[in-house]
């Protein structure tokens, strides 16, 4: 008896990643559940972190590089009074200083300095490549190096609760920021600015662009019932929509550049008369340029 393998549906899976698992580990689980190796993720979460991880299946993997450039929201706990090698609770403590003298006003001033457009030096124990080698690999090998600061935007940085435990001060915060912002680095820099050191003890991503934690499903739920957000729905939620006529759809399907309407900046999702996603497009010199095609 022969078994016919069905084509995995193209779409996104909004996963509520558990702690202790890498983003690549989630991708491996999704490959098994989807029955295809054509699976990827948008925006890595550290193993310690939980929350929204966007998984693309089949053609939807072409959306991921564009989704990764969106705004993100986190809840986190920052511990002031200790610095660690990783800027989070998974690394060994490298320095301690009593945070008993840190006031709420001082915290507010430190947070204000880290809000808005800032230059941020990423955590050294990260996946950023330096000369083709991952930064965390260089740290493990004992190399002494510096990472360059990068422009990021922290749209909001709000303290929800403040707790003192001995010489330490824990802050529960919410952060809304641009892609590429390291919450661990915010904890490190807040502690450094207050002169006591700081690191992250908990991190949960609650939103990536339009995809919020309320839409996310745990791995256990997906094991019981695997389903994807159809690619048309996924693109319609994340990008401006442009509905084209049959002739425009035919030309776009063949990769032909056509005259551009007044499109917003950045990628726009082009949909055919039948409602199918044709492409992500951008306006370039008065014409439509395809940045990702889905017609084939």
From TrEMBL:
Enzyme Commission numbers on file: 5.4.99.25
Chain ranges of the Pseudouridine synthase II N-terminal domain: 31-183
Membrane-crossing residue ranges in chain numbering: none
Gene3D superfamilies (UniProt xref): Pseudouridine synthase, PUA domain
Highest taxon in the source lineage: Bacteria
Claim: RNA-binding is one of the keywords in the record: no
Residues annotated as catalytic: 46
Xref: CDD domains: PseudoU_synth_EcTruB
Domain tRNA pseudouridine synthase II TruB subfamily 2 C-terminal: 239-294
Alphabetized UniProt keyword annotations: Isomerase, tRNA processing
Residue ranges of domain tRNA pseudouridylate synthase B C-terminal in the record: 184-227
InterPro entries xref list: PsdUridine_synth_cat_dom_sf, PsdUridine_synth_N, PUA-like_sf, PUA_sf, tRNA_psdUridine_synth_fam2_C, tRNA_psdUridine_synth_TruB, TruB_C
Reaction catalyzed: uridine(55) in tRNA = pseudouridine(55) in tRNA
Role: Responsible for synthesis of pseudouridine from uracil-55 in the psi GC loop of transfer RNAs.
Entry's family note: Belongs to the pseudouridine synthase TruB family. Type 1 subfamily.
The protein's name in its UniProt record: tRNA pseudouridine synthase B
Organism: Actinacidiphila acididurans
């Amino acid at each position: 008896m022969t078994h016919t393998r069905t084509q995995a549906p193209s779409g996104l899976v909004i996963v509520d990643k558990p702690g202790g698992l890498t983003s690549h580990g989630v991708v491996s689980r999704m490959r098994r559940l989807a029955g295809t190796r054509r699976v990827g993720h948008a925006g890595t979460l550290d193993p310690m972190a939980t929350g929204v991880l966007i998984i693309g299946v089949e053609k939807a993997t072409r959306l991921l590089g564009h989704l990764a450039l969106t705004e993100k929201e986190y809840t986190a706990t920052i511990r002031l009074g200790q610095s660690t090698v990783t800027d989070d609770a998974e690394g060994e403590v490298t320095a301690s200083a009593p945070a008993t003298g840190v006031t709420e006003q001082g915290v507010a001033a430190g947070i204000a300095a880290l809000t808005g457009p800032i230059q941020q030096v990423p955590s050294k124990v990260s996946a950023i490549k330096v000369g083709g080698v991952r930064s965390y690999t260089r740290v493990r090998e004992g190399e002494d190096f510096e990472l360059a600061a990068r422009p990021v935007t922290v749209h909001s940085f709000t303290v929800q609760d403040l707790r003192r435990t001995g010489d330490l001060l824990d802050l529960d915060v919410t952060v809304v920021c641009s892609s590429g912002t390291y919450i661990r680095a915010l904890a490190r820099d807040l502690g450094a600015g207050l002169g006591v050191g700081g690191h992250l003890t908990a991190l949960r991503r609650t939103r990536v662009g339009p995809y919020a934690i309320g839409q996310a499903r745990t791995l256990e739920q997906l094991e019981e019932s695997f389903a994807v957000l159809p690619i048309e729905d996924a693109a319609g939620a994340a990008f401006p929509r442009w509905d084209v006529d049959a002739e425009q759809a035919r030309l776009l399907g063949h990769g032909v550049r056509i005259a551009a309407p007044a499109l917003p900046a950045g990628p726009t999702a082009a949909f055919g008369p039948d409602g199918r996603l044709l492409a992500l497009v951008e306006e370039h010199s008065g014409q439509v340029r395809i940045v990702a095609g889905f017609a084939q």
